[in-house]
Write a structure and sequence with these properties.
- A hairpin with a 4-residue loop joins strand 1 and strand 2.
- It is built from four helices and six strands.
- Strands 1, 2, 3, 4, 5 and 6 form a six-stranded mixed β-sheet that branches.
- The mean pLDDT is 94.
- It is 25% helix and 24% strand.
- It is of the alpha+beta class.
- It is globular and about 45 Å long.
- GO terms for molecular function: cytidine deaminase activity.
C-alpha cells in the first residue's frame, strides 16, 4: 500500500477548498489523504463562543471516522487576506491529538521556517517528539 505524505496535490486540494468556501478576504482549509488515497477536505467552523469553534481539520477527521478510513497525511492552509498568499499551518495541539488516533506516523504539513508558503512533511512523532501517549505500547510505532 502506498505511503501518503503531504505533497503538492494535497496542498492544492486544501487551497481549492479554501477558495471555494472563502473566496474573499481571510481564507483557510485542510486536506487529508486516507489510506485508500481519498482526499478529504474541510474548513473552520466559527461560533459566537470561541470555545465552540472547530479547526479546519475537524470536519475531515470526522469524515474519516464516518467512512472508517485511516488518515495518513494532513495539511492546513490559511491566508489573512485575498491579496496574501496561503501559508502552511502546523496542526494545533488538539488536532495533533485527533490525528494521533491513527498513530504517530501520520504525516503533517509544517511550514518552512524561512518561507511559510512552503512546507515539509513530518510525522507526528517528529512534530511532537515527547508526545505523552507514546510510552504505551500501541503508540510506539
Amino acid at each position: 500500500m502506498k505511503q501518503y505524505r503531504v505533497d503538492e496535490q494535497l496542498v492544492q486540494a486544501a487551497r481549492q477548498q479554501a477558495l471555494a468556501r472563502f473566496p474573499e478576504g481571510w481564507s483557510g482549509a485542510a486536506a487529508m489523504y486516507t489510506e485508500t488515497g481519498r482526499i478529504l477536505t474541510s474548513v473552520y467552523v466559527d461560533a459566537p463562543n470561541e470555545a465552540a469553534c472547530l479547526c479546519h481539520e475537524t470536519g475531515a477527521i470526522c469524515e474519516a471516522h464516518r467512512l472508517n478510513e485511516r488518515i495518513c497525511a494532513s495539511v492546513c492552509v490559511s491566508r489573512e487576506d485575498t491579496r496574501e498568499p496561503f501559508v502552511i499551518l502546523t496542526p494545533c495541539g488538539i488536532c495533533q491529538e485527533r490525528l494521533a488516533y491513527w498513530g504517530l506516523n501520520v504525516e503533517v504539513g509544517v511550514p518552512d521556517k524561512a518561507e511559510p508558503t512552503q512546507y515539509h512533511s513530518l510525522k507526528l512523532r517528529e512534530v511532537q517528539p515527547y508526545y505523552w501517549h507514546q510510552i504505551y505500547g500501541e503508540n510506539k510505532e
